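Can anyone check this?
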Amino acid sequence: MRPATILRDIAFACAGSLCIATVVTAGATRDAAADDDSTALSARTQDRGGGVPTSLASSYVRDGELLTSLAFLYNRDNEFEYDPNEFGFSAPGEFKGNYWDSSADVLVAYGLSANLVLELEAAASRASLEKADSDLSGMPNELRESGLGHVRTRLDWRMLEETDRHPEVFSYIGALVPHDASKVLIGTPDWVGIAGAGVVRGYEWGTMTFRMGLEYDFGSASELDWGEVAVEYLKRLSPGLTVYGAVQVLEGDEYSLVGELQWHLTPAIVLKLNSGFGLTSHGMDFSPRIGVLYNFPE
């Protein structure tokens, strides 16, 4: 995506977000003197249980809570776009090869207050890329890398808590920590800043979330790019079972459909079974994930 196109899209996105935030904030100000309907609010938060939204979709953290997540992920894409020049091999352009990666991901999130959550995340990863038959560069037939994957920190801020009159509004800011610049598949060559915002609204039939993020890669020629954009649905079917679904867009053109089952083994332990399916040729074809959440209340 060209820088000019990205900047134009960013401008529209920021303008839209500003309009949404202005309308919501104005509505909240007008309603500040009104009493909240506690019964209605309880019904609206029945799917998620309250707290601040985190980067782990459909997971929320309250003040003083410690959330830990251990997840195993796999991604496969049989039309993975790559440029041999990025691997140090001269080539006339991009090709499409077979790619897969797997990782063990650990995330820790702590509620600093009723409206602030600090996250730390790291992964151990393996990745493989088989070059295309038409790629005549000196690149090996298969590249393999293993070691430390992404390392990320993030601060989540709930700007407005949901009431019967307006939705919840949240934002976040964070960074990917650079390491292993020589590992093109799993390394992070330079700092990457991340920021975004979203809204959450609970209904009797489920909870809807819209989130939109941006990335600023200090080492990239284009620098500014889309992060994750998603429309999400969450529903608590019973005390032991929750379902989640989403349409996600990464980097502006990688569309995927995501489904997840959450099995509440105990009030503090949740088993998550998740899978994503690519809707466009730019995204991953298949992305299953299994994870366990441990929630330690204050």
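Reply from J.R.: I decoded it. Confidence is low (pLDDT under 50) at residues 1-38.
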